[in-house]
Amino acid sequence: MARKTPAQQAADQIKDQAFSDLQALIEESDKLLKESAALVGEEAETLRAQLSVKLKQALDSMASVRDRTKPVVEATETYIGGHPWQTVAISAGFGLVVGLLLGRR
Known about the structure:
cell inner membrane; cell membrane; 105 residues; mainly alpha; 3 helices; elongated
């Protein structure tokens, strides 16, 4: 495998930070859910059950997204590593088009 460029390393850090932030959000929500045990009544119990289901779904969804995107990210990194000048040309062209579109406003 080719060495990672600083841009690839930065992208990996951003991706890892996003996943860790999402994980922290889920853990904090779980903590709040457990602390809400002091609430009483049927409505409070229903709310806690719904929150618990949603947190489980979020955890499952995060794991699913990570598993599905990993091959795509690896393929992209491989392509960029093998075709750096084509990647630069495509990026420059895309930037030019976006700049022209934004300049018209």
